Amino acid sequence: MCNEYEAQALDFMGKTNTTIDIKFGELRPYFDDATKDQRDVYIVVMQKMGREFRFAFGQSLARSGNYVLLPGWKASDTCPACVNAVPRRNSHRYERRAKTAPTYYDILSSMDAQVHDSIDDFQTDYGYVINSVADYHRLVKTYNAVNEQANNLRLLFNDDELDQLADIQ
159-166 vs 133-156: helix axis angle to the nearest 10? Predict the structure, then answer.
């Protein structure tokens, strides 16, 4: 049985005759940031009337099947049994969390079909602060990715359907 959020997503998919296929891709850093946190990255394919939009979806860290340090251990701790172990895999200090695939709601509620006319508008709308050249490059990369997503969604859905998509929350 699904909750009200997943019901919203299923209702949208039924009304728009859309299918979504979600397959695990790999465990890797997803965002271009300094932390390089590992998360499950899924390959998502949305299809409607012979058209498809294929993209990577980075699952939240809490729902990714990554390795977590067990209570009572620090990553810097040494252990005779772990000296030759590959970090995070062959060590009794870490355990792997269960992987939780994203739901249709997770996917659809993250979609934004708004095309931003300029990078300045995008920066203002989302509150990006630029303190370095690297920050600016990340902003440009994000701006281009968001507009690419919006354009792909506009190829799949009409304006009424995009309004329905925006209401999934």
Answer: 120
